[in-house]
Amino acid sequence: MDLDAVAAIKGFAINVLQVFALVFAFALVILALYVVYLYLSDISQSKQAIRRNFPVLGRFRYQFEHLGEFFRQYFFALDREEMPFNRAQRSWVYRAAKNVDSTLAFGSTRPLNQPGDILFLNHPFPTLAKDAVPPSEVTLGEGVARKPYSTRAIFNISGMSFGALSVPAVTALSKGAAKAGIWLNTGEGGLSSHHLVGGCDIVFQIGTAKYGVRDPEGNLSDKKLRNIAAHEQVRMFELKLSQGAKPGKGGILPGIKVTPEIAQVRGIPVGEDSISPNGHPEIRDVDSLLDMINHIRDVSGKPTGLKCVIGSSDWLHELCEAILRRGAQSAPDFINIDSADGGSGAAPQSLMDYMGLPLNRSLPLVVDLITEYGLRDRIKIICAGKLLTPSMVAWALAMGADFINCGRGFMFALGCIQAMQCNKNTCPTGVTTHNPDLQQGLDPIDKAERVYHYARNLNYEVGTIAHSCGVPEPRQLRRTHVELINERGVPVPITSLAPEGRPSTVIGTDRTR
Fold first, then answer.
1. Residues 6 or more apart from 71 whose CB is under 8 A from it?
2. Which of 3, 190, 417, 495 could form a disulfide linkage to 265, CB 3.0–4.6 angstroms apart?
3. Alpha-carbon distance 313 to 240, whole Å?
4. What residues contact 350, with CB distance under 8 A and at least 6 apart?
5. Alpha helices per DSSP H over 301-374
């Protein structure tokens, strides 16, 4: 290489270094000006004492607080200590959704002495594979609704509104549910084309704001109700009184998530907070509740039930007594019991943490009560609330549930990482955001397969538990198959704490039991 070429290369390199030096110097000047701006901004504001006393540096506190959620989840928390779902639970769902091997080695990491945990009693002569049968079929609304609904599905998708969930998330749930043969509850946000695209069975939820079936004044519109019922896929209607995340308060959808399409489906203005009333104005007692349920069933011709979180139980006695006065045909076709620890949506912490009964109390309470009143065959029981693993689904069946709904388990199947940003439109996995840049990471075709695999693998393992207990199918599980670890760390029969309910020959009115 001649000297001229070397000189040219050297000159070019010097020029490049000079440009980089200028850019670096310019960046330092911009950074210094930005730090000065932050400093002046911090010392002149009065809303945050940390920023005012420690300008610029105080801002790192809020960044570390935010990043701490992720560091705790991935680096510091043990497998079974996180809330609301620990790593062991999430990992099982992820493996089931990806259809990979879910077996473990070298023993369980679950301690067997934690009060409140459950154990199943294996039978010395378990059900053989050749004797196992599919789950029995259950019919809702038989002899009452013009179009009763029959299904073998045990594990279904709980109510999560379009709006709370993104377009690709709802699309994936619809397609995955159709392939798995389970139903998809719309949540209170109305029925969209994305719910219908997969061809799955639909349960249409009527919330306190009656989105999708409301008139301009917010009252129930029979015309819109008939239009919804005209969809063959819509199999049932669910009248929501309350939900697990916020008993006593209506749904909350921040205005940033109310897109034109969501506003059209709900019948509300674009970009405004969607705040549902905390109750149905026209339902103020059990008689008006039964009137509404029967009206919806008469207009739609399809099974109709109610959803609620159980708190005070007096009204349940009044409800059953009113049904007996009117006749069994006036009863709701199902009661969907939501646990106080349920909820993927936005809610005040005071309600999320302290209001309502958890499912381990409310499920046996309701099952036993309607059994005592002789209505167990008439009213089917659905339940929801953190039931996303086979053991908890099997427990619910043993306690008397006919069906189990799950929301957050299916969110995990869609790719949710428990980032706790469902209400901020910043969900990093595209499940609960309407930001197109974040939604693009959620492929509805791939996630629909994961929804299908999750439902199928969970049902398979619930069947495995049932067979180990000596029964041929999951709906034959009973409380006698379950023991509960007491406060001393010793398993005791769950029937000693919650005996199986029996029909009463005479119904008393004592509310103190």
1. none
2. 190
3. 17
4. none
5. 314-326, 349-354, 359-372
pLDDT per residue, tens digit, the chain (513 aa), is: 577 777 777 777 888 888 889 999 999 999 999 999 989 988 888 777 777 888 888 887 667 666 666 666 555 555 555 667 777 888 889 899 999 887 777 777 778 888 989 999 999 999 999 999 999 999 999 999 999 999 999 999 999 988 888 999 999 999 999 999 999 999 998 999 999 999 999 999 999 999 999 988 889 999 999 999 999 999 999 999 987 666 666 667 777 778 888 888 888 888 887 778 888 999 999 999 999 999 999 999 999 999 999 998 899 999 999 999 999 999 999 999 998 876 656 666 767 677 789 999 999 999 999 999 999 999 999 999 889 999 999 999 999 999 999 999 999 999 888 877 777 778 888 898 888 888 888 899 999 999 999 999 999 999 999 999 999 999 999 999 999 999 999 999 999 888 887 787 544 444 443
Look up the pTM and report it. 0.84
Q: Residues 83, 420: contact at Cβ < 8 Å?
A: no
Strands 252-253 and 274-275: antiparallel
CA distance 391 to 387: 8
